[in-house]
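Try this one yourself first.
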């Protein structure tokens, strides 16, 4: 039988008496209005035609259904709503089975939950990631999932938003079967279910769970969601499933979904979602193919180099690490193997994958080994002479088409490139430490970087599972430029009367995992001190300069590792140190500053303003391509809370900021 069209994105055809409905709404089969309308028409058709014994729902392409259409949020609702579609599926008198070919996320997972049976293909995945968008599932997910897999597992899945693969889905009871030919298996399941009374998920009792286990699962979610409302609401709704009727639970879920959907938190997280998909897109690279990269050379296998090596190895590359001596090479290899072992111990990496990584790793003391590399990253001491000399040597070793990347954080990569024979093949790759964990990579488009070299660096970073953001050349690139402005403003406030612990508390209440002075102590104060000393001669003598950090360094207070910095760590815990308070008071007195009080709001406003102003300057200078890139850098590299959308987004929406 030929295909019947139910809407522009939903069609169906008969297979063994079963109506197989395909949702084809590229790119991710989101449940746009025409998908919802098409599904209802398909169900009507199946119910009306006597020869149809049941329905299978599947997705076209790689995705089953990626969820509600996020772009529709905020627009007037169009009937039927997704919860209505779910009711129609669940109440259908003929069996409806989901044949899950790919990602079933959010509303997509909810469609599967409303069906009478679920079969997963090998590429299927399931998740209710709504909390990552600042919302809760709004089409029955919080009420149906605990009925299928129990309260504890549902709290974990919905509260974290994590995705599960078919093997876990079957263990949880989320699916009835996994099959390579999921469509044939789903049609078979419809035949089995036909003529019986259907297993309607909403009518199941929630399995009884131990209160202690429910409490523990709830606590785990809440401990990770500081400052956000959606995860706590998700936990509340899942728990409600065993306390109220299905109908009441659905009504409460819907009301919560609508309230959160219109919140600032959800708007911020939607902004981040689309920002991530925009990042790394560069107009001038349209149609330019990246170079082939198989072997990655890494010069320097210290903390940074080893982290980059692990990221490259786990992404499947062959890695050649280079050290200056045999002894250092042995230690480098051990460092890399140690990180991989730790990942195996914590369950993040399978032992077989680690063994594969080690088989693709060589660490040598002979730089000539880099002749085989397609892409070389230097992760040596951040000194211009050291890096320039290294790149000049590499000119005589690597192939002419090999790419050279510098992992500098503050030096000018244009100067490094200019000293080489082929500046076009030089690009900046600014990783964040630990490089195997941190997602952000600033890809620095230098003055002479060839377009296909930039495209290759972006493709490489993506293959590493990183979030690449393109930056032009400037002191500290996007992130450190903004961080410097933010730090400067924090120090101005301390000099004017705020205590460092007040600034930190205000930032932590706003959602940063750590305040700026605590971060400073963690990272160590001496590197920035050395830089300030280098820059002292060229500093604008009329610009305000706060000496407090210099004075701390002069007193040997380099941060946590020396037991003292902005705080004291003698007890093992961070504590306010009267010596620092006195040192700050003396610095104020030396400038005749009479300290004044700062409110929490004023502290946050001033810091947001400082970051946003510096961000605006980066846009004007053409260093950042779009303000959402700046937001991503600060969220992924500097702890800015994602649910506030980043400094540029927050400055636009933060009401207290005076224009
Ligand atoms: C929800 O379902 C609420 C319900 O509970 C209740 C409702 C009542 N909508 O990521 P990609 C776009 S909330 C609109 O690069 P991949 C994306 O912007 C939703 N657009 O592909 C991009 O566009 P462009 C819960 C969407 O293959 C393009 O698709 N669901 C949506 O790497 C390709 O995206 C989620 O949170 C959407 N839902 O990964 C899932 N999703 O080309 C969110 C994507 O213009 N989505 N786009 O830049 C994902 O996690 C991934 O997109 C997915 C595919 C894994 C599906």
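Now uncover the answer:
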């Amino acid at each position: 039988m030929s295909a019947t069209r139910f809407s522009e994105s939903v069609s169906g055809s008969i297979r063994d008496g079963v109506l197989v409905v395909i949702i084809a709404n590229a790119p991710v089969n989101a449940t746009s209005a025409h998908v919802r309308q098409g599904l209802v028409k398909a169900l009507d058709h199946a119910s009306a035609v006597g020869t149809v014994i049941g329905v299978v729902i599947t997705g076209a392409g790689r995705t089953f259904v990626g969820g509600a259409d996020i772009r529709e949020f905020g627009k007037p609702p169009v009937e039927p709503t997704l919860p209505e579609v779910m009711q129609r599926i669940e109440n259908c008198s003929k069996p409806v089975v989901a044949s899950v070919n790919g990602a079933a996320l959010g509303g997509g997972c909810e469609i599967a939950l409303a069906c009478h049976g679920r079969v997963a293909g090998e590429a299927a995945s399931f998740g209710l990631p709504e909390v990552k968008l600042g919302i809760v599932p709004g089409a029955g997910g919080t009420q149906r999932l605990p009925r299928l897999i129990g309260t504890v597992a549902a709290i974990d899945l919905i509260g974290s938003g994590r995705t599960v693969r078919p093997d876990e889905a079957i263990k949880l009871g989320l699916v009835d079967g996994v099959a390579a030919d999921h469509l044939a298996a789903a049609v078979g399941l419809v035949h089995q279910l036909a003529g019986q009374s259907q297993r309607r998920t909403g009518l199941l009792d929630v399995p009884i769970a131990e209160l202690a286990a429910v409490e523990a699962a709830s606590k785990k979610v809440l401990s990770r969601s500081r400052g956000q409302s959606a995860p706590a609401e998700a936990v509340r709704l899942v728990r409600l499933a065993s306390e109220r009727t299905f109908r009441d639970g659905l009504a409460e879920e819907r009301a919560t979904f609508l309230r959160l959907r219109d919140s600032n938190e959800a708007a911020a997280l939607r902004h981040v979602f689309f920002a991530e998909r925009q990042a790394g897109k560069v107009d001038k690279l349209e149609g330019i193919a990246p170079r082939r990269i198989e072997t990655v050379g890494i010069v320097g296998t210290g903390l940074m180099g080893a982290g980059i090596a692990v990221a490259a190895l786990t992404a499947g590359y062959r890695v050649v690490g280079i050290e200056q001596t045999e002894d250092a090479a042995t230690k480098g290899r051990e460092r890399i193997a140690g990180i991989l072992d730790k990942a195996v111990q914590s369950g993040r990496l399978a032992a077989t994958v680690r063994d594969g990584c080690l088989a693709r790793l060589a660490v040598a003391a002979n730089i000539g080994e880099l002749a085989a590399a397609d892409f070389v990253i230097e992760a040596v001491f951040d000194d211009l002479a050291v890096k320039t000399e290294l790149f000049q040597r590499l000119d005589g070793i690597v192939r002419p088409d090999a790419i050279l990347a510098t992992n500098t954080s503050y030096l000018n990569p244009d100067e490094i490139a200019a000293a080489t024979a082929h500046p076009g093949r030089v690009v900046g790759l600014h990783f964040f430490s630990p490089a195997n964990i941190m997602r952000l990579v600033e890809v620095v488009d230098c003055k002479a970087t060839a377009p296909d070299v930039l495209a290759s660096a972006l493709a490489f970073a993506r293959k590493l599972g990183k979030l690449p953001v393109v930056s032009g050349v400037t002191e500290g690139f996007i992130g450190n430029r903004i961080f410097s402005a933010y730090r400067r403003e924090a120090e101005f406030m301390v000099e004017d009367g705020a205590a460092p612990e007040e600034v930190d508390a205000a930032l932590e209440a706003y959602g940063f995992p750590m305040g700026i002075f605590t971060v400073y102590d963690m990272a160590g104060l001496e590197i920035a001190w050395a830089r300030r000393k280098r820059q002292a001669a060229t500093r604008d003598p009329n610009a305000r300069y706060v000496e407090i950090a210099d004075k701390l360094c002069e007193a040997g207070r380099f941060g946590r590792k020396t037991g003292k910095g902005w705080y004291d760590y003698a007890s093992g815990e961070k504590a306010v140190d009267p010596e620092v308070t006195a040192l700050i008071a003396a610095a104020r007195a030396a400038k005749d500053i009479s300290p004044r009080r700062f409110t929490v709001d004023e502290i946050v406003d001033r810091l947001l303003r400082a970051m946003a102003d510096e961000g605006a300057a980066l846009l004007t200078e053409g260093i950042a391509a779009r303000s959402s890139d700046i937001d991503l850098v600060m969220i992924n590299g500097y702890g800015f809370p994602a649910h506030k959308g980043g400094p540029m987004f927050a400055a636009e929406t933060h009401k207290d900021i005076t224009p």
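Discussion: The domain at 479-653 is CATH 1.10.1040.50 (N-(1-d-carboxylethyl)-l-norvaline Dehydrogenase; domain 2). The CA atoms of residues 344 and 350 lie 6 Å apart.
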